[in-house]
Amino acid sequence: MLFAAASPAQNDAIDSLLQALKNYDAKKLEMNKNILPGEEDTVRVNILNDLSKKYWQISDYTNAKKYADEALVIARQINFKRGIAVAYNNIGIIYYYQGNYTEALKNYSVALKIREELGDKKGIANCYNNIGTVHYDQGNYPEALKNHMASLKIKVEIGDKKGIAGCYNNLGNVYSDLGNYPEALKNYFASLKIKEEFGDKEGIAASYNNIGFIYFSLGNYPEALKNHSAALIIREELGDKYGIAQSFGNIGSVHQDQGNYPEALKNDYAALRIFEEIGDKKDVAITRNNIGTVYSDQGNYPEAMKNHLYALKIRQELADKGGIARSYINIGKTKVEMHNSAEGKEWLIKGLKLAREIGYKEILTYGYQDLAQADSALGNFRGAFENHKLHILYRDSLNNEEAAKKTTQTKMQYEFEKKEAETKAVTDAELKKQKLLRNGFVGGFVVVLLFAGMFLHLQNKTRKAKRRAEEEARRAEEEKKRSDELLLNILPAEVASELKTSGSSKAKAFTMVTVMFTDFVDFTRVSDKISAELLVDEIHHCFSAFDNILQKYKIEKIKTIGDAYLCASGLPLSNLTHAENMILAAFEIRDFMLKRKEKAPFGSLGAFELRLGIHTGPVVAGIVGVKKYAYDIWGDTVNIAARMEQNSEAGKINISGSTYKLVQDKFIFTYRGMIEAKNKGKVEMYFVERSG
After folding, report:
1. Which side of the chain, N or C, has fewer Cβ within a 10 Å radius?
2. 3-state SS assignment for residue 567
3. Is the dihedral of CA 534, 537, 543, 546 positive or negative?
4. Helix (H) or strand (E) holding 517
5. pLDDT in the model for residue 30
């Protein structure tokens, strides 16, 4: 659990709050005699917010939203900022559990802003935690790590040990999803150690649960069962019904993975009985889903269908879009297995449509695989092939290569900021030294002027000093202009402005950028047969043309490496058309080189031919060095773009599957299949032919 694990509220707890609200309304007039105007309504806001929390803890999102909205209205009327922040946080949690991540982030961000205004460090840390959780569920692991680390930093500052343990737990969750199990275990064990220090038995059980999950993922079933059983024992001691049910469910999953279906069903039904008893509808649906998959694995499709339909009904009541999509897919898959492929396909299409709407990649991955099987059973082999390709595409976005890429990006961000801090320290020292020298020079110059005044007429001295000052000012302005022009020629305008303002520029991570490499074919062979002057002139002519084309499409030139040319679209200012812009620029560059060939600048050798390769993904960008600044980009995206170029052909624009996905409706393509790329394995590639 990414949020602090809280046992679902008992009915008497909710009844107690409702009674408190009723009593408050009845005694409001009497309270007003002793309470300052407006202050009494803070009591109502707090009760409403507490009610909202109790209701979302038992998955009653309708009542939870109702009381949070009422709290927000009153808190705004009396400008009770803490109450406003809590209400926004509750609303964010409700949207989160309903799978509406956009609204969840929106409300968490408002809550964070108010907490920052109040200087509420604990509240700020909790907001970072919640924001990190949403990014985690969206698969945006760099942002998830960034926010959870920000939360951890504050909790360490304020000495919130329980909060620190929670942050380690959340970081473990992110690394777990990235497939970085050593880091996940490291953070989970760090969390466990702190919980053991202050005897947090509930937290200890949660840590055993998470550690068990890692061992389960590693296929170490004995250790998985050992840790889940340890969690179950503690939760039974505490009488934590929710935790007990969760442990039964986890133990059931381990047995299911081992093919021990009787034990799996035994534990799943034990979990189901408890979830139904405590009224936790969301987990009832999840458990019904799990039971359905066990029956499906056994070939008992009627029972599987019964449980999946039961889960769907509950998820529709809760408006749980992610859960609904998952149920649609499971029902569709079961229908296909029952040899009702036509009806199964309809369910699968509904599930995939909803999954695309909410960006649920995991469901899209296996949903397209199931749809391919349905099409195959129906004899639609072309459709089966296309859906299998989509399955591969989404699977690859979730596999270890993607996880490693995101982890590398985050580590690079950390390392770069560390180096940047060191660079800034060096720069500040240099500036301080220059300031001392300048002040010394100015002091000396003043002394010279004083002595000169003893020998020159005062009026003549003033006139000359004025002319000198004007000349110096003019020269300084010219130097500044030349310096600014030079800086803008080296760095993006936004980066240059930041550098001039603060003396440094912070590295930034971009989650979606399109990168292009170009390279001249047979460069070494041609360069050996022409003069160095002609070679340099031709490269200069070509690259200057490339520069002008990039400027037209607002694409950032990064650098040239010999005869290779590297550029990126979508930074330093992000935009939604970065992939399309890059391909349009690639067409113009390609056409320029084809026309250049007609002029045969190398005589009988003709002209250079060009390969172009494009890939889309995350990068880290920033300036390097203290002197001779250079704006550069890093990340696996750059490496894959280079592989696209290396596997291209003369006069061709070769793009990856991730770029294709963004522009598939804009151009005409030739699918090249899965092609082996050096150190990258097989990568999906397309040639872009022309505009659609």
Report:
1. C
2. strand
3. negative
4. strand 508-520
5. 55
CA 233 to chain centre: 37
Spatial neighbors of 213 by CB under 8 A, at least 6 apart, are 176, 224, 250
Q: Which residue has the higher pLDDT, 639 or 19?
A: 639
Pairing of strands 653-656, 610-624: parallel
| Helix ranges, 338-399 (H) | 341-358, 361-377, 381-398
Separation between Cα atoms, residue 361 and residue 396, nearest integer Å: 10
Region 554-583: mean pLDDT is: 88
Q: Which amino acid is at 567?
A: C
Q: Which of 561, 579, 558, 560 has its CA nearest to residue 569? A: 579
> Measured in whole angstroms, how far is the alpha carbon of residue 250 from the centre of its chain?
28
Per the CB < 8 A criterion, the answer to whether 187 and 172 are in contact is: yes
- Residue 366's SS3 state is helix
Mean pLDDT of 207-230: 91
* 189 vs 352: CA distance, rounded Å: 37
Decide which of 413 and 628 is more confident.
Answer: 628
d(Cα 494, Cα 581) in Å, to the nearest integer?
A: 20
How far is CA 585 from its chain centroid?
Answer: 28
Phi–psi pair at 649, nearest 5 degrees: -130, 165
Q: Write out the two tokens for 426.
A: 């060096």
Query: DSSP code of 78?
Result: T
State how far the Cα of 336 lies from the Cα of 115, in Å rounded to an integer: 51
Q: pTM for this one?
A: 0.47
- Cα–Cα distance, 185 to 416 (Å, whole number): 26
The answer to whether residue 434 scores a pLDDT higher than 60 is: no
Architecture of domain 504-691: 2-Layer Sandwich (3.30)
Phi and psi of 673, rounded to 5°? 90, -170
Does residue 453 carry a pLDDT above 60? Answer: no
Beta bridge partners of 622: 632
DSSP character for 189?
Answer: H
- Two tokens at 376? 């195959």
* Alpha-carbon torsion, ordered 195, 196, 201, 203, to 10 deg: 20
Q: 3-state SS string over 438-476?
A: HHHHHHHHHHHHHHHHCCCCHHHHHHHHHHHHHHHHHHH
3-state secondary structure of 588: helix
Q: Which of 510, 498, 507, 486 is nearest to 624 (CA)?
A: 507
> How far does CA 649 lie from the centroid of its chain?
34
Distance CA 592, CA 588 (A): 6
Cis peptide before 302 (omega within 30 of 0): no
DSSP code of 603?
A: G
Q: Which residues contact 229 (CB under 8 A, 6 or more apart)?
A: 247, 251
Mean pLDDT (whole number) for 475-501: 58
Instruction: Quote the pLDDT of residue 416.
Output: 44
**pLDDT for position 212:** 93
Residue with tokens 């950032």: 556
Q: What is the 3-state secondary structure (H, E, C) of 635-688?
A: CHHHHHHHHHHHCCCCCCEEEEHHHHHHHCCCEEEEEEEEEEECCCEEEEEEEE
Alpha carbons 210 and 188: distance in angstroms, whole number: 7
